[in-house]
Design a protein that fits this description.
The complex is a heterotrimer. Chain A is α+β, with helices and mostly antiparallel strands. Chain A contains two helices and four strands, in the order βαββαβ. The chains are: A alpha+beta, B alpha/beta, C alpha/beta.
Amino acid sequence: MYYAAKLTEEKCTGCKICIMSCPDPNVIAFVCASKKVKIDEGRCKGCGLCVSVCPKDALNVSQL
Amino acid sequence: MSRQQIADPQHLLFEAPRHQSFITGSEAVAEAVKRANVDMAIAYPITPQSESMHLVGELYEQGYIKDFYRAENEFAVMAAIHGASLGGGRVFTATSGPGTLRAMEMFPVWAGARQPIVCAFMCRGVSLPPSIQPENIEMGMLLDTGMLMLHAEDGQDFHDMILKGFVVAEQPDVHLPVGVFVDGFFATHTKDRVMLPPADLKLPPYDPRSAPVPTFDMETPPMRVTRDPLLNKSNFISGSANASWHQEILAAAERSRRHLRKCLGGLLEVQNPGAKIMIVASGTAVSQSREALRLLRAEGMEVGLIKIKSIRPFPEAELAEATDHADLIVVPEFNAGGWLGREVKAALDNNRRVISAPRIFGGMSMPPGLIVETIKGAMGTKKRTAAGV
Amino acid sequence: MSKRIITPTPALAEYLPQQYKDLVENGPHGRGLGVRDLGSFKEIVEEHPHCAGCGVSLGVRLVAAALPAPEDTLIVGTPGCSFFALSQTAVNYSNTAFGNQNAVASGLKRMLQIRYPDRPKDVVVLVGDGGIADIGLDMTLHSWFRREKITTIMVDNEVYGNTGGQESGMSAEGKVLPMAPRGKNFPKIPVFDLAKSSGCVYGARVTVANPVRLGQVVEKAILVAREVGPTYVQIYTPCPTNMRFSPAETIDVARAAQKGTYAFEEFMSEEAEALIAKSRRE
C-alpha cells in the first residue's frame, strides 16, 4: 500500500510552507501560472509533514 | 630562501650533480621535503619523529612550503592531510609508533580515496611496556592498508625514498599513498654521509589532473561525487562497486612495481648472489647484516645478503629467484612479531629453509654477532638433521 | 565553478539522466536562490533513502537550498544518517572516518585557499550530533581554536540514528535509549556554548520548524566564515523512527522544542555583525 499527499487545489493559497517542510527534494513544486503547489505523488513518501503545517487544510495523505 | 628552479624528476633524482653532506636522518627528511615542492605539511610531535617536523616547519617559515600547522593529535593530522590532499595539492607528514596506531583509521582511507600522500614513519616501539626505543612492529600492522611501503636503511635511503615516493605516488596509473619507513633513532638521530642534489632544484608541482579520480575542488566534473571510498549501502550493486574499487587499489599497487624498479633500481638488491646462505633483511637490519657478512667472511664463510627496499608491493618473484639456490635463509628484524619473516616464508617454496630470527625488540641495537650465531646455529641443526641425529 | 563546466556537449546530453539535465537547465548555480525559492528550481539534493518524516533529511535539504554559492561549496560529512542524502547531492562531498570532519575540512579549506587565493570556496561541515559532540568533539573544538574559516552545521536528532537509536551526548537527560537502559544520566553537551567560548565568530541555534530562519542563519554563517572565521549552526532535526513518534509530527516536535532547549539564539562578533550588515546593504 502506498500513501501520498494530495492537494485540494481550491484551498491552496500558494504560501509554500509545505514545500519548505518536506524532507524530500523536488516533491512539491510551485506552479507560477496558478500560484499554487503541485505534488509529484510518485516521489512522495507520505509522511504527512506538509499536512501538519498547511494553514488552509489544503492537503491530506491518502492511499494512492 | 633561494629561488628554486623546477627540474625534471629524472634530472633531479639521477642526473644533477650531488654534493656530500654529513647530516642526521631527520635533516635528510627536511632536505628531501625542501626539494619536493610540497604545498602543505601538518605535524604533531612524537619521539623520534619530532626533529624532522621541526625542520619541515622551518621550511614553511623560509617559504619552501605554502602552509603548515601543528595539529591536535595524529588522527587529526592524517585526517587534515587527507583533506588537504583532496583539495588537489602535494602534502607531507610524518609520525612514529603510537602516533601511527592513533592515526590508523586514516591510512586505508588515503589508499581508498587514491591520495598520493607521502608520509614518513620513524618507527619505534608501542606500549606496553612503554617504549620510545627503535622497533618496527608498526610496519607489520600497516601491511594491508593499501599504501605502498618503502623501508629505508639509512639517511641516504630516507632522503631519496621520500623524493622518489612523491614521483611514484603521483603516477596516474598508481596514485596511491607512499609510506617511507625507517627504524627510529638508528637512522633518524645518527649522522651519516648523505649525497644531496642541488638545493636550488625542486620537483614540478603536483598536477591534480594526473589523478584517476576527480579533484575535490568543485571545478572537476562530475560535481555529484562522494570523493571517498564508496558508501556501502548493503545491496548487491553497491557491494560490487565497492569490491571493484578495492580491486583497483590492489591493481594500482601492482602497477607501481614498474615505477619502483625504475626509481629504486629494483625492489630488492642482492650482495654475494651465489652464496648458499642468504640473509634477507630490510631497514637498519641490512646494515647490521653487512657487518655480519664481514665477520663471517673473516672466518671463511661466504654469505649473501638481500636488502628488501619495497615491502608493499613485496618483491615475491625477485626474492624467489634470488634465493632459489640457497639452502638457508635467515631473516633478522627489529620487532617481536617477525612480520618480514612471515612475508619471506609466504613468498618462497620450501620455506623450511627460512629462519625468522634473530628478532630484536625493546630498544637494543642488533649485534651482528647474534646474526652470525643464528646462522651457525641453524647450520648445526641442519647438519644434525642431515645425519639423522 | 562556472556553469560551463557542468554543461554537457549536445552529443553527450542525450545520454545523461533527466535529473542531470534539469540541474543544468534549472539548477541553483549562480542564481542567488534560497529556502524561499524552493519548489521553483531543481534542487541539488536528489531523491534519498531517509525515513518518511526524517528531520535530518529536512535539515540537509534546507541547508542545501540556503547555500549562498552551491557552485563553489564543498561539504565534509561523517558517517551516520546525515550522509544518506548528501552522498547524492550535487556538490563534492567527503565522508571518511567517523568524527574527523573538522580536521578534514581544515586541511581542505587551507589547500583550496592555496589553489584558489582569489575565489572563495565555502567548506561546510554538515554532520550529526554524535559526530560533533561525541567522537569528533576534540577536532571540532580545535578547528574553532585555530580559527579555521569553515562553517560547522550540526543536524541534531539527539540520537545515533543510523546504528539503531543509541544515546548520544546530545540526547536529553533522562531519556531511556539503547545503551542508556536507565536513562541518560547527564545533560545535553553544551556545544552551542562551547562554540561561543572556543572561537566561533557567529553561531545560531534553530529548528526545522522555522525553515526561513534556518535558511537565513545558514547563509549568514557561510558568508561570515568566508571572511572572518569559524561559524556554527545547530539545527534540531527530530527523528520519528528512533524517538517513536508519527512521521507527521516531526515539525510539531521541533516547534515544541523552540519553547525550551531549542529557543532561537544567535551570537556574533562585531566583525561578523559588520559583515552581515554590509552584505544586507548589497
